[in-house]
């Protein structure tokens, strides 16, 4: 809004003409008043007094008018400034409301994951399709914050449950249950491992249809979710990405009652390349360009069906990526002078060091001796690793309330790795799994659809908030989780 200008005009000249007679040259008359005037000594006293009163009266009127004019001007300027300040602090989207559906009869959410898509990759090359979603949608301006540990399975399952790993049970990509001695791997589909309620289960529990084209945990049968044929794809990394996109598009050709209201789509890239060559190699640039083309293929297909503006597309990654190399290594064998850490104790080396000593060995003593050695300046890169009892980890990590988490956890600095011995051949590459406060671990959040403002930037947030965001868009009641029930209001537009 343009600010109107206000001009304050000075009062008009007022001439007071006083009849004057002859003034004797040797007579000096000095008069002090609000206005200068000349007086004639020959005037009568009554006339002189009347003139003086008149001038004083006029002067008072002028002073009052000037004061009132100034007051009005000040009030106008104050109001204009306040209105301008209010306007500048309120972004356009504060006045937007969600857009009505044109073709679909009910809200549909498509959740897309590009594994290992580090925040900033979208600027590595020309990504017109991803930026179309950004420019016409809502983006976490400095990226999406993963949960700790910043690994694939824990984060993908946190995104769809709204739970930290300690509560949904997938505390690492690989781990051992201390109670049963059973080993979890990424091929474990027994419901006992997968706690919480993922979005596809929530949708099915409400009598609605969901479809998953790969997502960790989607093949697990829980609640009313039975991984139905044609709606739930068994993981096969060899399936071309284009086929995955086309299958998702085919769901929009179904009758309304058969169309899933929630869908997932998963790509392994650019995580695959990141581990081999790190985040700065040309292979990453090529992988990002390919992901962008896939987004273009998806958008084109939705537009041809007339539903692109109706679908809520949420594109995320699970974690970032950082380069690692030979010189950034810490070897547990170098701690032998203080304490021996047999490989049988170690459940995970890097970038999350996880140690479970056998019963009878004090975890507290192990931590004390390890830290003593690491701080001695006699262990290579020892100051890059700090070991904790899990209950003494920083609370912001939310990584203690599960028996599946080993009692000893080591936090490794960005880009460094822990290994058992120096005999292993070393190579440069990329890794993730570090403290989620490290910026290189951040990924992307891009959302486009009728309930997302166009061109809006929002502050970074943890991925556990996405569960409540999706259930709010779908207008269904979600399961209890670690996210905030009020968070969706900060991201999506109010209804009409």
UniProtKB/TrEMBL annotation:
Keywords: Membrane, Transmembrane, Transmembrane helix. SUPFAM superfamilies: Alkaline phosphatase-like. The chain crosses the membrane at residues 55-79. GO terms for molecular function: hydrolase activity. This is Uncharacterized protein.
